[in-house]
Amino acid sequence: MSDAPKAPLLPVPEALARLIALMPLMGTEEVPLTRAAGRVLASDAVARRTQPPFAASAMDGYALRDAGLAPGAEYRVIGEAQAGRGFAGAVGPGEAVRIFTGAPVPEGADRVLIQEDAETPAPGRIRVREGFDDARHIRPAGGDFSEGDRLTAPRRLTSRDVALLAAMNLPRVEVRRRPVIALIATGDELVEPGETPGPDQIVSSNTYGLHAMLAALGADPRMLPIARDTMHSLAAAFDAAEAAGADLVVTLGGASVGDHDLVGRAAGAAGMALDFWRIAMRPGKPLMAGLMRGRPMVGLPGNPVSAIVCGHVFLRPALDAMLGLPAGPLERETARLAAPVVANGGREHYARAVLGRGADGALSVRVLERQDSSLLSVLAEADALAVLPAGAPEMPAGAAVEILRL
Ligand SMILES: Nc1nc2c(c(=O)[nH]1)N[C@H]1C(S)=C(S)[C@@H](COP(=O)(O)OP(=O)(O)OC[C@H]3O[C@@H](n4cnc5c(N)ncnc54)[C@H](O)[C@@H]3O)O[C@H]1N2
Ligand code: MOO
């Protein structure tokens, strides 16, 4: 790959569109509700129930007829309705049924007088207090949803969605299969966390950041053994990814132009048809992608911040595509610079930054001073990336910039 170091760099939107086009759509499977959160609903969920299935009391009190209700009015209590066991009869004028929250409102009643507004002049009787509260406290049948109502696919299921699906009486739902994503760290300098690095070695980190990111988004990331900087070791890693059933192969490192940056060459030898290499972004320039024996392969740069920024900018939308979600650039917001930034170079800069609020309450962003792509402590401090356009001039405090939340 070192034969094209000066080739023009691909703009991020074009690279992203090409990457998304490489992604296969995952098949579907059924999962119980306890495993549904974070998964992507693959077909509309259709309510098998109406909720509430009957007009239900919203309060503890007395079900009665609204007509004639007035301070001092008295009612004879003819029975009781509790949640799970209603009152079988009907409520006539001058009659009330003791009722509790969630109980079916008996026939004839169209109001619940809360118990705080009732006094008991004699056993079996109630009297309406002065200044009683004027709400009816009845939840109509179907007030939440009706049988046949839909929770539409595709959507990444939240805990709130799971509660709704349960209320719809759907114990299982059809979701997209979680894409298996093989993560391959590459480099002779790397050891796993917890191991003892040699004098010239460091601990592999970016694989763990990506593993966490992808798992949280509904993928099934698999950490493969670290590949060494040899064609043989990289070939073995690609074989291992295939054996793991990877839907997407992601390498980290070895993507640039150095003598030991062999990923592009090794991937080519393993049958990868390169789609693109080298992006007009900072960090992330050496990113590559292609199809390897029918499955997409992404080569991320090794610098830890580069890999994780590329994970956000490229892998998150790629994963959305595999899961059948609308896939495109991450949502951007506008914020005001809290302090000036220097002129940008020729690559779109995804600068690590911290969000805040200006004096006027508007979203503000402070670009962190140290932007070297090796600095994980700075990345951990950041909660956003400020996107500084290629060739942007120096910008004063208060200037509007686009940001991506991390
Ligand atoms: N002459 C040039 N040199 C470089 C260029 C260039 O255009 N011309 N690009 C630079 C840019 S930009 C980047 S980004 C890096 C990325 O290169 P590689 O993808 O080949 O990454 P490596 O060289 O393998 O590693 C870079 C750096 O990151 C460390 N690393 C790698 N993997 C991990 C890991 N799993 N966990 C933690 N740290 C990791 C590695 O030790 C290196 O320090 O190339 C520039 N060079
Ligand atoms: O593009 Mo590299 O990712 O700047 O550090």
TrEMBL record:
Its EC number is 2.10.1.1. It catalyses: adenylyl-molybdopterin + molybdate = Mo-molybdopterin + AMP + H(+). SUPFAM superfamilies: MoeA C-terminal domain-like, MoeA N-terminal region -like, Molybdenum cofactor biosynthesis proteins. The keyword Transferase applies. Keywords: Magnesium, Metal-binding, Molybdenum, Molybdenum cofactor biosynthesis, Transferase. GO terms for molecular function: metal ion binding; molybdopterin molybdotransferase activity. Residues 182-321 form the MoaB/Mog domain. Pfam families: MoCF_biosynth (PF00994), MoeA_C (PF03454), MoeA_N (PF03453). InterPro entries: MoaB/Mog-like_dom_sf, MoaB/Mog_dom, MoeA-like, MoeA_C_domain_IV, MoeA_C_domain_IV_sf, MoeA_linker/N, MoeA_linker/N_sf. Pathway: Cofactor biosynthesis; molybdopterin biosynthesis. SMART domains: MoCF_biosynth. Its cofactor is Mg(2+). Gene3D superfamilies: MoaB/Mog-like domain (3.40.980.10), MoeA, C-terminal, domain IV (2.40.340.10), Molybdopterin biosynthesis moea protein, domain 2 (3.90.105.10), Molybdopterin biosynthesis moea protein, domain 3 (2.170.190.11). GO terms for biological process: Mo-molybdopterin cofactor biosynthetic process. One of its GO terms (cellular component) is cytosol. The keyword Translocase does not apply. Catalyzes the insertion of molybdate into adenylated molybdopterin with the concomitant release of AMP. Belongs to the MoeA family. This is Molybdopterin molybdenumtransferase. It comes from Albimonas donghaensis.
